[in-house]
């Protein structure tokens, strides 16, 4: 939507005015940069448009920037450089997005350039590459050394070459950078920036009959002429069978994919080439959307709501009359997705845009298929497994109003919506909505709420196990609350059984990591030809390897963690920095051959299942098996199609997946989830166990079973899982949070100080904590202290936790004070190499 205020108008009646633009650059610098607007650009440059600008030294790189403001005030302190080029005739970022970028940078204490860098898909950011070419005006060969003369000879053979290409031509050992520097000084070469846009449209080569043959008489003459050339005639007839231009001649101009005509044999390819050469056919290229080959097409399915779902939908719409945010608290399997679809249809029919956020790509994969049956190709899909080009097409599709409805993961909140009516945040409790690295460390749920506020849209938060903070807001009346406690199709909640692994170990009935109860249930399930899901929130084969004789443990050289053993790749791997090592045959400390694996992950469970049930079909779903673009989709399709008996996975299998034939869920290592040292551990353990349990028995007439392996069946949180007692958990946890001043009664800001020298890191952290404590008080500042993993990527870490009351303190002023103290540390000469990571609303 073009805003006339965004256009810069010039007046030449009195004197020419020089205009400037304040730009957002994708770099971590806490200010906008002012550039001069060239005379020819002033009338067309708009706020929100992308431009190319030089940045850094004179012959340095170029960057993609976004115009944030247009004015006629020159910058102070530096000479404004000129904008090189405008990339957008119509801005690809909206005024709402610019406001959102600003809010995120202020709220999450980061730079607006960092927000832009994360928000824009890479395909919308220009890349530059230094190129070198021979200077045709150079005429002093006597000044050249032998190496320089050789390099110039190579350059003269090409229009231009990159640094990398010159290095390959000159061979190893040649100092190309020094040669280029010398030749620039002698004015023998020209160095310039070759700029290219990363987004490349997908082109499809098509063919069509020459316009002459759109007339029926001419077409008949052609077919008669080709009677003596049957192969060529066959190609023409094949074209006409796909393009019925006899009835509608205009269809010919749309043409036909070239591969359709020459896919059968080499002879038809030769015939087609001859027909093109003889100008019977002509070839042309068209841009094809990358989603054209999905199963979208025309909407077919019609959603029919149950009485309970219809009542929930009506209640939500009713509450939207007085509340901007509503929480839908619906148990697992209650059919929240159908309610979402009904609300989406209502919003779209009113002419508004809709954003549907999901926490995990795996969940996106399954739900997208269901949504496409309803909304067809009017729906856009946006997540990180898509290529840059695919994400750019969705981005541009939102701008052009091709997509009024988008489903995506957390990064979809940055899409250029300008007419949002509804945002749905499904599984709103999920930690996947929080970005941890790099900055901005935003929470997509909270950003979505702010985005909706600016666009006067409504927000629906959905979960079977809401985050305690969200449920608290609903109970306080700040959010609306709608409950859906009936499973879809009268399916019943699963029967949850606690298996005491300590007791089984004493009775020696455990087999590896499996209790006899779980093995028996798996066997019975396969006999009934029903499917099972096994959950272990740890990937790899074993968490670490250890020597039985000297207790040596394989540890990462860069991080203070043990290396995880991955049997499939026969390597030890660090899950923090990616460091890899081969598996030692003997202990590197004492030489003992008694090096064994300790603990278990999903890979080990998969391996053991193949031993226990050699005829079974087992599939694993974790980060290691889903790196490929379509891996999620393939795993889910195979499991949904009944080709797999047992699916083993990490927490990605807990998030809303819906399989009719799953009647058994097994949960390993529940105690580790419960006793994790974090104030949210109990809440998250309840959420995770309840969510994965909800995958069982989703079909009416068959109750599912959940077996939870634990060393202590009496733990209160497990009893609440059995009772499906979320409200009981909420009341107990809320009292604990209030007693010790944790969210929702305060805001948390975590500062992590990092340096390669432990002493310097500790010094900086101690000084920062002291300055904060002196101003804010010891009750609000905790630390510094070493985190559980105190060294990552050879940097020593110290955490400072700041707790700020929600109602009594000016949080904006506190953040400004904290940032000032951080800047004091970072500008200290002795501490300049220290880095400080700020995480607002840390999880």
UniProtKB/TrEMBL annotation:
Uppermost EC category: isomerase
GO molecular function, one term: ATP binding
Pfam families, per database record: DEAD (PF00270), Helicase_C (PF00271), PriA_3primeBD (PF17764), PriA_C (PF18074), Zn_ribbon_PriA (PF18319)
Entry cofactors: Zn(2+)
CDD domains per UniProt: DEXHc_priA, SF2_C_priA
Function in brief: Initiates the restart of stalled replication forks, which reloads the replicative helicase on sites other than the origin of replication. Recognizes and binds to abandoned replication forks and remodels them to uncover a helicase loading site. Promotes assembly of the primosome at these replication forks.
The protein's name in its UniProt record: Replication restart protein PriA
Organism, scientific name: Spirosoma radiotolerans
């Amino acid at each position: 939507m073009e805003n006339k205020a965004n256009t810069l108008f010039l007046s030449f009646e009195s004197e020419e005015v020089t205009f400037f633009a304040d730009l957002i650059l994708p770099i971590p610098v806490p200010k906008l940069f002012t550039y001069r607007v060239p005379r020819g650009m002033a009338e067309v440059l708009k706020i929100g448009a992308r431009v190319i600008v030089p940045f850094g030294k004179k012959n340095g790189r170029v960057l993609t920037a976004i115009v944030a403001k247009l004015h006629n005030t020159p910058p102070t302190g530096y000479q404004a450089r000129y904008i090189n080029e405008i990339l957008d005739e119509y801005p690809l970022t909206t005024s709402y997005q610019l406001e959102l970028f600003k809010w995120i940078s202020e709220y999450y204490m980061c730079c607006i350039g960092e927000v832009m860098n994360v928000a824009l898909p890479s395909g919308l950011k220009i890349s530059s590459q230094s190129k070198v070419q021979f200077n045709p005006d150079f005429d002093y060969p006597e000044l050249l050394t032998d190496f320089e003369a050789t390099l110039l000879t190579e350059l003269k053979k090409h229009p231009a070459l990159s640094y990398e290409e010159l290095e390959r031509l000159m061979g190893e050992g040649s100092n190309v950078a020094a040669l280029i520097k010398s030749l620039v000084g002698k004015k023998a070469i020209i160095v310039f920036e070759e700029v290219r846009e990363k987004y490349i449209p997908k082109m499809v080569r098509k063919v069509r009959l020459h316009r002459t043959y759109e007339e029926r008489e001419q077409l008949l003459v052609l077919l008669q002429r080709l009677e003596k050339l049957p192969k060529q005639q066959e190609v023409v007839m094949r074209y006409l069978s796909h393009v019925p231009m006899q009835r509608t001649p205009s269809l010919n101009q749309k043409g036909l994919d070239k591969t359709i005509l020459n896919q059968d044999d080499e002879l038809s390819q030769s015939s087609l080439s001859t027909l093109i050469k003889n100008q019977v056919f002509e070839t042309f290229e068209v841009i094809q959307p990358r989603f054209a080959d999905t199963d979208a097409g025309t909407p077919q399915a019609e959603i029919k709501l149950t009485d309970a779902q219809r009542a929930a939908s009506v209640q939500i719409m009713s509450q939207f009359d007085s509340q901007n945010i509503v929480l839908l608290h619906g148990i697992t399997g209650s059919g929240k997705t159908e309610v979402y679809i009904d609300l989406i249809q209502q919003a779209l029919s009113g002419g508004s845009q809709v954003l549907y956020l999901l926490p995990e790509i795996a969940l996106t994969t399954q739900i997208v298929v269901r949504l496409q049956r309803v909304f067809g190709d009017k729906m856009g899909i946006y997540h990180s497994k898509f290529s840059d080009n695919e994400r750019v097409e969705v981005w541009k599709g939102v701008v052009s109003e091709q997509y009024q409805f988008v489903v995506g993961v957390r990064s979809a909140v940055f899409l250029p919506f300008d007419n949002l009516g509804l945002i749905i945040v499904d599984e709103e409790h999920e930690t996947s909505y929080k970005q941890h690295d790099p900055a901005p460390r935003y929470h997509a749920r909270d950003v979505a709420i702010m985005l909706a506020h600016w666009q006067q849209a409504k927000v629906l938060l959905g979960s079977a196990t809401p985050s305690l903070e969200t449920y608290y807001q609903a109970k306080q009346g700040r959010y609306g609350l709608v409950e859906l406690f009936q499973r879809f199709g009268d399916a019943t909640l699963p029967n949850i059984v606690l298996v005491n692994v300590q007791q089984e170990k004493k009775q020696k009935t455990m087999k590896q990591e499996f209790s006899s109860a779980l093995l028996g249930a798996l066997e019975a399930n396969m006999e009934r030809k029903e499917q099972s899901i096994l959950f272990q929130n740890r990937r790899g084969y074993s968490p670490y390897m250890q020597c039985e004789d000297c207790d040596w443990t394989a540890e990462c050289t860069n991080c203070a963690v043990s290396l995880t053993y991955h049997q499939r790749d026969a390597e030890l791997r660090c899950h923090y920095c990616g460091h890899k090592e081969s598996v030692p045959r003997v202990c590197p400390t004492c030489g003992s051959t008694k090096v064994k694996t300790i603990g278990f992950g999903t890979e080990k469970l998969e391996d053991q299942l193949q031993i226990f049930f050699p005829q079974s079909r087992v599939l694993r779903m974790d980060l290691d098996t889903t790196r490929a673009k379509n891996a999620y989709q393939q795993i889910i399709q195979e499991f949904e199609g009944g080709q797999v008996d047992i699916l083993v996975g990490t927490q990605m299998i807990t998030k809303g997946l819906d399989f009719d034939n799953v009647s058994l869920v097994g949960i390993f290592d529940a105690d580790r989830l419960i006793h994790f040292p974090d104030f949210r551990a109990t809440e998250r353990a309840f959420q995770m166990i309840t969510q994965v349990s909800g995958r069982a028995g989703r079909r009416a007439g068959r109750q599912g079973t959940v077996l939870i392996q634990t060393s202590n069946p009496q733990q209160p949180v497990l009893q609440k899982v059995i009772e499906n007692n979320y409200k009981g958990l909420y009341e107990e946890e809320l009292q604990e949070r209030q007693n010790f001043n944790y969210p929702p009664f305060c805001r948390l800001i975590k500062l992590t100080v990092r340096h390669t020298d432990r002493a310097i890191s500790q010094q900086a952290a101690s000084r920062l904590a002291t300055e904060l404590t002196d101003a804010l008080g010891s009750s609000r500042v905790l630390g510094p202290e070493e985190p559980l993993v105190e060294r990552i990527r050879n940097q020593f870490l110290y955490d400072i936790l700041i707790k700020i009351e929600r109602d009594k303190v000016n949080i904006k002023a506190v953040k400004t004070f904290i940032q000032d103290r951080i800047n004091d540390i970072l500008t200290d000469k002795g501490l300049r190499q220290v880095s400080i990571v700020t995480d607002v609303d840390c999880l």
